[in-house]
Specification:
This protein has about 180 residues and is of the alpha/beta class. The protein is built from 9 helices and 5 strands. The protein has a 5-stranded parallel sheet with strand order 2-3-1-4-5, with helices on both faces. The structure holds adenosine monophosphate (AMP).
Length: about 180
């Protein structure tokens, strides 16, 4: 069975960068939500107030996004960037994977300290509405409160992998490769 891999880590930890380097189909809920907001869809209209504040979009909304997008992916290996972010989403993911006859192969945490996150995001030039320092602080708080419990969730299932996300992106990629090998 082709692997499905979940990437966890704070904002700015390099999930997108490292996920792409794995060379598999990637599904990033943040990208899908930004597209919906830019396109002015009903989903975008519902998601906008949350993303602008750096809060999580409600679980049922984003689980629907995941379910729809997952159906379009085919049977190859898949990397999920930014989903799940809560235990309820992790449970929804198990359901979606079951429906597709797939199972999670690994949950990889990319660890980066808060101070470095703030510093990295202040340097990046993505022109994201949620990259101002106050919103980044909220996104970090939300990560620690709501997403970090997934580390225990996946450790319990024997799926947890963890790498140091600091330093050169090539070095991080090598750590990721070794951790998942
Ligand atoms: P990201 O690009 O992954 O940093 O996501 C940007 C924003 O989209 C987040 O701060 C949330 O507001 C929203 N978002 C993305 N993925 C999720 C998710 N799995 N659950 C809830 N909100 C999400």
């Amino acid at each position: 069975m082709e692997p499905v891999i979940v990437l966890l880590g704070p904002p700015g930890s390099g999930k997108g960068t490292q996920g792409k380097r794995l060379g598999h189909a990637t599904l990033a809920t943040g990208d899908l939500l930004r597209e919906a907001i830019a396109g002015g869809t009903e989903l975008g209209r519902r998601a906008r107030e949350y993303t602008e504040r750096g809060d999580l979009v409600p679980d049922d909304v984003v689980a629907g996004v995941l379910r729809d997008a997952f159906g379009d992916l085919g049977d190859g290996p898949v990397v999920l960037d930014g989903f799940p972010r809560t235990v309820a989403q992790a449970e929804a993911l198990e359901e979606v994977l079951d429906e597709h006859g797939r199972r999670l192969a690994a949950a990889l945490v990319i660890d980066v300290p808060d101070d470095e996150v703030v510093e990295r995001i202040s340097r990046r030039q993505d022109d994201r509405a949620d990259d101002d320092p106050g919103t980044v602080r909220n996104r970090l708080r939300v990560y620690h409160e709501r997403t970090e419990p997934l580390i225990a969730f996946y450790a319990d299932r024997g799926l947890l992998h963890r790498v140091d996300g600091t330093g050169d992106p090539d070095d991080v990629a090598e750590r990721v490769r070794r951790s998942l090998a």
